[in-house]
Design brief:
Elements (H helix, E strand, L loop, with lengths): L15 H25 L23 E6 L14 H10 L5 E3 L11 E3 L7 E2 L5 E5 L14 H9 L13 H5 L24 H9 E4 L2 E5 L7 H4 L27 E3 L8 E6 L17 E6 L3 H10 L7 E3 L5 H9 L1 H4 L2 E14 L9 H10 L2 H8 L5 E3 L25 H10 L6 E8 L2 H17 L1 E8 L3 H5 L10 E6 L10 H5 L1 H4 L15 H9 L6 H17 L4 E11 L4 E2 L3 E2 L5 E2 L5 E2 L2
Parallel strand pairs: 1-10, 1-11, 14-15, 14-16
Antiparallel strand pairs: 2-3, 4-5, 5-7, 6-7, 8-9, 9-10, 12-16, 12-17, 13-17, 18-21, 19-20
Length: 602
């Protein structure tokens, strides 16, 4: 996750007095209405805005859309984009990848993978160790030159320049069949390294990634059945070699429907105008309705929401890129005129607990089960801010993913069952109350959310001690010393693409995580050789439906063994001005505003 911290502000230049009055009225309303909604704490899903706005659609092109954000954008360089919202915006406006997920006009199809730069979603060999993609004809860069197979190959090669290109996905390093040195570094040093013509690293990369006409083939070091989903990431996007400005991460050279009108201004933003060389006939993903998108960053998220709620002259064609703060969310939900201009979606980011199996208490399966059964997820969500900010989750697999399931293996329900949890602690042979030390990343909201769990745990027979940690939280809990200091760790995780393959292996494959230097991302030191074997088997399943069912079954097994306790999937709520049409949020790409279809009323 990428933390945004810019504090610069922007104010409208016209009608300042009326604007201030309108915003003042919004704030006054919040005090009276939102406070009541927060106290109610029910926030059922029926009260929330939908994922796709019910307002009248338009298919007319034209107009100027204002996108307003706190920012800052740290990179528009495809191989260096790290933030999911930046990746989503780039992927719908100026950056095309071999494959992409369907726009969210119909939420039922948003996790459906389709060809983008490629004609289709790719073709693997029988062993799933080689994937080929044939590029569409007529796709052009903003200078009119064609996007070629060699451009894709060059873009992917930049990931191997690990000192020059940092911050983005390194999946290419992990899966391509390029040998590694004894220290784990690739023998290929990327396109910027000065090497001899017969350098073995260059030869290895050319063998791993090859072009034949418009077809690019990737050879992998092991089977990867969802490699075609992996290449939907910006890190696998093309870069035109003679336009590569590796020293400036905010340079943009477009092959999508929009190009930058002028260089991007850090902490201020930039204006996107039509790329006249983009052809709608080559693009099944983007409708590109607005003529211009004015992307303005450096505005506090609350200010953005307030301005758009007030619907003043400069906000009528504006959309928020950041989720509205919880207090404002509650007001938006309770005022029909605002609710109609908003959408909400799950972000895919799941908060969860990892019991430390090295702990004398949590090494007992019944104790881990008791903690899961005693956990009141509804109380946790209420403390986060209610249904607009999160929804209770029993699984690390978000609802939009094909592997999502509705099983609750521990039978805890939304509120937990303290009585049954107490029985499980007795079966564990533990003397009540059972002391547990719980570490979590502190913030004002997290402090309240974690405190909301204490009552259920205490009633079940635990004696919890919450330890809020602020600085370098994940570094602290992944240090070996943490294994003897805490019994339970709070954490969170979001998928990199719409598959459970980006969740369960990363968190629970002990063979790649647990070393003498620490647990990696397996913070609770969970280790099971059968689980590891299944993690290696599932990527060899070619059929996507069967593969995701296998991930779902493994997830149920992990829950039954007490590997983790899911708490909540975070939600976002976005609001737009009255002239914005086709507003939606796409959970398959992180629950962000969908720019493939958005439009402005003319």
């Amino acid at each position: 996750m990428n933390t945004r911290s810019s504090r610069s502000r922007s104010r409208p230049r016209r009608r300042r007095g009326l604007w201030a009055l309108a915003v003042g009225l919004v704030v006054a309303l919040i005090a009276g209405v939102a406070g009541f909604a927060l106290l109610r704490g029910d926030g059922g899903d029926e009260e929330l805005p939908s994922q796709v706005s019910a307002r009248e659609r338009t298919d007319e092109k034209g107009g100027t859309l204002r996108a307003m954000s706190l920012g800052p954008v740290t990179s528009w360089d495809p191989q260096r984009i790290a933030a999911r919202d930046d990746a989503a915006f780039a992927g719908r406006t100026f950056l095309r990848t071999l494959t992409a997920y369907q726009p969210s006009t119909d939420p039922r199809n948003q996790a459906r993978l389709i060809g983008d730069l490629a004609k289709d979603a790719g073709t693997p060999n029988k062993e799933l160790t080689s994937w080929s993609f044939t590029l569409r004809e007529g796709v052009a860069w903003e200078d009119g030159s064609p996007v070629t197979c060699e451009d894709v190959k060059y873009g992917v090669s930049r990931t191997f320049s690990t000192t020059a290109i940092t911050g983005g996905s390194t999946d290419a390093l992990a899966v391509l069949s390029v040998p590694k040195k004894p220290d784990g570094a690739s023998i290929y040093a990327g396109p910027f390294a000065k090497v001899a013509a017969n350098d073995p690293g260059v030869a290895a990369y050319d063998k791993a990634v090859s072009c034949k006409g418009a077809t690019i083939t990737f050879n992998l070091s092991s089977p990867v059945s969802d490699f075609n989903e992996m290449v939907s990431q910006p890190a696998f996007a093309p870069v035109k070699k003679d336009k590569d400005d590796a020293e400036n991460a905010l340079t943009v050279f477009s092959n999508g429907p929009y190009r930058l009108e002028a260089p991007w201004r850090a902490s201020t933003g930039g204006t996107w105008v039509r790329n006249e060389h983009w052809k709608p006939t080559t693009d099944e993903v983007r409708r590109a309705f607005p003529d211009r998108i004015e992307y303005q960053e450096g505005i506090e998220t609350q200010t953005v929401a307030q301005q758009i709620m007030a619907d003043g002259e400069r906000a009528r064609a504006a959309v928020s890129l950041g989720s509205a703060p919880p207090a404002l969310q509650q007001h938006i939900v309770n005022v029909d005129a605002l609710k109609d201009r908003s959408v909400t979606a799950g972000t895919g980011l799941i908060d969860y607990l990892a019991p430390n199996v090295k702990s004398p208490v949590m090494q007992k399966p019944q104790a881990r089960a008791a903690l899961a059964v005693a956990t009141n997820r509804e109380a946790y969500v209420t403390a986060l801010g209610g249904a607009t900010t999160g929804r209770p989750a029993t699984s690390l697999i978000p609802e939009v993913l094909p592997a999502h399931h509705d099983e609750d293996p521990m039978g805890a329900g939304g509120r937990g069952d303290a009585g049954r949890a107490k029985v499980l602690l007795g079966e564990a042979g533990l003397t009540l109350p059972v002391p547990i030390r719980v570490a979590y990343r502190s913030s004002p909201v997290a402090d309240k959310a974690m405190a909301a769990l204490v009552a259920g745990w205490t009633e079940a027979g635990f004696a919890p001690t919450l330890t809020p940690l602020k600085d370098e939280y994940f570094t602290t809990i992944s240090a070996p010393a943490a294994a003897t200091s805490y019994d339970v760790f709070w954490s969170n995780w979001a998928p990199a693409w719409a598959s459970a393959s980006t969740i369960l292996p990363a968190l629970f494959d002990s063979s790649i995580n647990i070393t003498p230097s620490g647990p990696g991302r397996d913070y609770g030191y969970f280790a099971d050789t059968n689980v590891n074997a299944e993690i290696r088997r599932i990527p060899t399943v070619a059929d996507r439906t069967e593969r995701e069912k296998a991930w779902a079954s493994l997830d149920v097994k992990l829950q039954r063994q007490g590997a983790y306790i899911a708490l909540a999937e975070r939600r976002s709520l976005f609001i737009a001005g009255s002239e914005v049409r086709n507003l939606s949020a796409n959970e398959a790409i992180g629950g962000v505003v969908e720019f493939a279809d958005i439009a402005v009323q003319q």
